[in-house]
Amino acid sequence: MAMPPTRRDRWLALGLLLAALALAYLLLVHPWFTRPLLDINRDIADTQEREQRVDAQLQQRGQVQQRLQEVEAALQGRPGFLREPTAESAAAALSSRLQDAVASASPGNRSCTISNRSPLTDTARDAQFPRVALQVRLRCGVPEMAAVLHTLETGSPRLFVNNLNLLAQRFQASPNESGTGLDVSFELVGYLKPGAGTEAIAAPAAAAPGPAPAGLEPVGSAMAAPTDPGVAQPVDEGTIIED
Fold first, then answer.
1. How far apart are the first and last CA of the chain?
2. What is the pLDDT of residues 44-75, one digit of tens each?
3. What residue spans carry the region label Disordered (predicted)?
């Protein structure tokens, strides 16, 4: 004679049924139905968020265009590229700008003089922005040197000071110099607009090396720094008096 199920047996059967249903859900329902639906809901939420961001950006379109026009107008007043059409004329402009900066920092060249300035050949001939550079050597006091560098790097068009070397020493190559300060060498670099100066830069490479004809100066002399009154010319190292 079978025993009637007790209360404990009923609860045990109910627990087994729930466990079987949970296992069936985890194995059959969740991977095939619930998870794909959750992924779809997540994609919908991400799409709605992106749409809201795009709408917010589109609403700012007028402000962005106005700001862009203001920036373009400001850049036209402060050009970043050198204005000269060729590398030779740009090198001459760099030399003149260097002279003006030195004269502004030290009127009469009493505390700052130009020892040497010579153009550097641009080796990256296939660069998008043609590079124009001068190798510069100055003898300046510390405040004057800081003023020269600040003037060069904050003016317009934009110039860059690379490979800066500072050497503190005493020297007096001319009566106008104070005798103390810095012996500074660096590269003064500017850039032409894309496509400008390409012919001028490529012309020296196309010419075959050889002695210049009699009565004609070498091509490199056209870019040499002019002799300016009141500006010190290249001085031999033997004239430097060090402590």
1. 122
2. 999 999 999 999 989 998 998 999 998 888 77
3. 218-243
